Amino acid sequence: MKRKSTKYDTPDAGGWMNVADDLFLAQFRGRACEICGKKHVVYNGRKTRSCGHHLLEKGLHRTWRYEPRNIVILCADHHGHHSRDISPHSDDTAAVARFYRWLSDHDPYKWEWMLSHYKENFDKSWKYRDKYIEMGGEIQGELVKDQKPLNHAEKIREAEGV
């Protein structure tokens, strides 16, 4: 597994991206899968909570990375690469097609939203550190190069409703 960056030396550094992603996605963890209703499943031998799936890929569509309309809550069974039933990440293209058919049938609002925004790719008008603060994250440190998240685990628990 690739190790997540912990660099915070610039406002757009990988560490800020990771904590902003974590804080944004925390609000979706453990909520009911929109396909089957499960909040937890055993996946690869571990109990795993449901999570938010970005309809528009976050790496390609930075504009919509932190947009709740871009999220569908899925359990690990429906979010995993090895699902043969229905999954946006499946190795089986039929399972991927079933996911998008399911989305168009069960949430036409998000389906139409996704189709109307997929061409809006990359927006560098904001920085990850600023998004982190905007979502309620706190920082410590005076100089930009010395800033780091403050009480991040507490903020995650708050977002998860724990």
Number of domains as seen in the coordinates: 1
The arrangement of helices and strands along the chain is: HEEEEHHHHEEH
**Whole-number average pLDDT?**
91
Number of strands: 6
First-residue to last-residue Cα separation: 27 Å
Helix tally equals 6
Sheet/helix structural class: alpha+beta
Gyration radius over CA: 17 Å
Quick summary:
35% of the residues lie in helices and 14% in strands. By secondary structure, it is an alpha+beta fold. The chain has one domain (14-160).
Can you put this structure into words, describing what you see?
The protein is an alpha+beta fold and 162 residues long. It has one domain. Helices cover 35% and strands 14% of the residues. It is built from six helices and six strands; from the N terminus they run H-E-E-E-E-H-H-H-H-E-E-H. It has helices at residues 14-26, 76-79, 93-106, 108-117, 128-134, 152-160, and strands spanning 40-43, 46-49, 51-54, 71-74, 138-140, 148-150. The strands form three sheets. Strands 1-2 form a two-stranded antiparallel ribbon. Strand 1 (40-43) and strand 2 (46-49) form a beta hairpin. Helix 1 runs parallel beside helix 5, helix 1 (14-26) packs parallel to helix 6 and helix 3 packs across helix 4 (108-117). The relative contact order is 0.18.
Short key terms for the protein model shown above:
14% strand; 162 residues; globular; alpha+beta; single chain; two-stranded antiparallel sheet
How are the SSEs ordered, and which strands pair?
Layout: H1 14-26, E1 40-43, E2 46-49, E3 51-54, E4 71-74, H2 76-79, H3 93-106, H4 108-117, H5 128-134, E5 138-140, E6 148-150, H6 152-160
Antiparallel strand pairs: 1-2, 3-4, 5-6
Helix pairs in contact: 1-5, 1-6, 3-4
